[in-house]
Design a protein that fits this description.
about 220 residues, 5-stranded mixed β-sheet, about 35% helix, binds uracil
């Protein structure tokens, strides 16, 4: 995918400003003709290191869940709601008195989400997927506004999505005229720390597989 002007040097939000030396914003990954686009939340440390979305444990977790219902991540387009890692820093004083700073992930701020909307939309328009699968509430809210994931997970929605305005107005989101097919899933990482969601998530994955068959998107099957 040809990256848009200004993408690699983007500092439109606080997470871009805090990018480490030598690291770039992380674009989506996959074939440009993909029929299904998966949208996660934000890159973590591993993604910032490798320059690719859903790497390390998060990637294995996602790939495994998809494979369990016969879906192939490599045949989909995978992207995040935001392009840089949102993190907080914590200082720890070690026994010998030295101070160690550790970074831990946090959800992207509303400002980061709106600032990054232009980049997500750039790739969304080019890939033009038939089905968008949102992972967790961050991409769901970014696309369709205030909507509780607990009410819509595992169902096919056909709705307008929020898109950024032009130029100075590019952090304001407006509803599209076009309607998109959106299938909301819980975030795969949430299943690890909320075991009570596991069964629901597995049922939702089966429904996703059925939806993909009904929409005849056979290119993403394993
Ligand atoms: N890694 C990603 O790239 N996105 C997520 O949402 C979580 C982990």
């Amino acid at each position: 995918m040809l990256l848009p002007d200004g993408f690699l040097t983007c500092v439109r939000c606080e997470d871009g400003l805090k990018r480490e030396e030598g690291q770039n914003p992380i674009p989506g990954e996959g074939i440009t003709e993909a029929e299904v686009m998966l949208i996660g939340e934000s890159p973590g440390a591993e993604e910032m290191k490798t320059g690719r979305p859903f790497q390390g444990k998060a990637g294995e977790n996602l790939n495994g869940f998809l494979a369990s219902v016969g879906l192939d991540r490599n045949k989909m387009y995978v992207i995040n709601t935001t392009r840089c890692r949102p993190y907080k820093e914590k200082e720890r004083v070690l026994k010998d008195g030295t101070v160690r700073v550790t970074k831990s992930n946090k959800p992207p701020s509303p400002h980061a989400i709106k600032s990054c909307a232009v980049w997500l939309d750039y790739e969304l328009k080019i890939v033009n997927p038939t089905l968008i699968v949102t992972l967790g509430s961050t991409p769901l809210k970014r696309l369709i506004g205030e909507q509780s994931i607990s009410e819509v997970h595992g169902t096919l929605l056909t709705l307008p999505i929020q898109e950024p305005g032009e130029g100075e107005d590019s952090r304001t989101l407006y509803f599209s005229e076009k309607k998109y097919h959106i299938f909301p899933l819980y975030h795969p990482a949430a299943i690890i720390y909320r075991q009570e969601l596991k069964q629901t998530f597995e049922q939702d994955l089966k429904k996703l597989r059925e939806t993909i068959e009904q929409l005849n998107l056979r290119s993403v099957l394993l």
